[in-house]
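Researcher: Sequence recovery benchmark, item below. Answer with residues only.
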């Protein structure tokens, strides 16, 4: 099994059944072997710095009804909120003073935040913070909308593909949501020059290792600049509330495989992983992740962005907890890197 890890490190590609084999053995010694290889590769590329991105959850309204997500439209138990332009600007100002140079605006697909409103917001932020990277994560929009936002100054876009296999996608989403459309959005984002992020949950209900192997093959082909992978975590007011959470080991194996496959990629140790186990963030970094995304939303609304139960939003997970984050990173020989950390255009062929 270790040989598969060595092969992936060398060739940056495996066959579907080889990926599946690694994932099925994630909990064994091969998991630790893969993590060691992945962190070596990450260290060669990025040194010991971990990029930080300030995450602002700008709206919890969503027109979609994803079976697993607490923001789903049918969840009437969730009190919704939408930040004003002034609140978002204030968050960014605070973040900038703390040292952040990337702002990630994330939210549900909120019809009230129409194309023009986001375009104006992006322009405002672009002018106010010319040295910062602006990342959007606002779901599926038309190519024309993505174009307008890009021209207004957005640099990056995060849109997890959620599942490369159409049948797996259909088990997690209602029929009104189209797998083809989501994949088309990723393609459009890429063509428009966004640094593009894709990804999926680890251990989502009904997801098999074959499905995950298909995700890995898709990511290998698409080569996103950023890849977000975190464990599925149940949310009590969703259809899938009774399904068990994804495992730490599976998540870590996916992170390690991705680091070996895409050495230059920006891969976060997600909040979901940190919410699943207390040392999740550190273990994610030691398995090859090189980004953390502390929450910069106003503390009063954080609980209302309840995509899953037990979501961390304080201490090292929060922008005001940078000292705690620094301490946690120092404990594993890492430190915060405030650089924009753009994807490096020059690909290395060594290693
Ligand atoms: N609406 C935007 C979109 O669809 O890309 C961004 C917000 S969405 C809440 C961000 C991500 O949260 C999704 O891509 C999904 O993978 C993740 N997510 C949602 N519910 C989750 C859950 N129960 N457990 C783990 N991750 C979840």
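Model:
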């Amino acid at each position: 099994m270790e040989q598969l890890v060595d092969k992936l490190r060398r060739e940056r590609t495996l066959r579907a059944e080889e990926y599946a084999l690694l994932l099925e053995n994630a909990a064994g010694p091969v998991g630790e072997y893969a993590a060691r290889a992945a962190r070596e590769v990450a260290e060669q590329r990025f040194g010991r710095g971990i990029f930080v991105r300030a995450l602002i959850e700008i709206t919890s309204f969503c027109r979609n009804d994803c079976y697993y997500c607490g923001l789903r439209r049918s969840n009437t138990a969730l009190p919704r909120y939408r930040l004003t332009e002034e609140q978002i600007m204030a968050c960014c100002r605070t973040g900038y003073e703390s040292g952040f140079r990337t702002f990630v605006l994330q939210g549900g697909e909120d019809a009230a935040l129409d194309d023009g409103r986001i375009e104006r917001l992006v322009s405002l932020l672009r002018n106010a913070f010319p040295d910062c990277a602006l990342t959007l994560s606002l779901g599926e929009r038309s190519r024309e909308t993505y174009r307008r936002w890009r021209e207004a100054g957005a640099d990056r876009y995060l849109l997890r593909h959620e599942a490369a296999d159409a049948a797996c996608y259909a088990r997690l989403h209602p029929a009104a949501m189209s797998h083809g459309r989501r994949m088309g959005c990723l393609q459009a984002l890429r063509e428009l020059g966004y640094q593009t992020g894709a990804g999926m949950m680890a251990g989502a209900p009904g997801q098999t290792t074959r499905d995950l192997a298909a995700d890995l093959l898709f990511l290998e082909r698409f080569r996103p600049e950023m890849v977000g992978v975190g464990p599925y975590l149940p949310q009590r007011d969703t259809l899938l509330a009774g399904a068990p959470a994804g495992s730490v080991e599976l998540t870590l194996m996916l992170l390690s495989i991705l680091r070996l496959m895409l050495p230059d990629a920006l891969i976060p140790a997600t909040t979901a992983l940190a919410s699943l186990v207390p040392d999740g963030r550190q273990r994610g970094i030691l398995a090859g992740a090189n980004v953390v995304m502390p929450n910069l939303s106003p503390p009063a609304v954080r609980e209302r962005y309840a995509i899953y139960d037990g979501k961390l939003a304080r201490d090292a997970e929060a922008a005001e907890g940078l000292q705690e984050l620094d301490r946690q990173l120092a404990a594993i020989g890492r430190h915060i890197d405030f650089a924009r950390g753009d994807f490096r255009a020059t690909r290395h062929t060594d290693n």
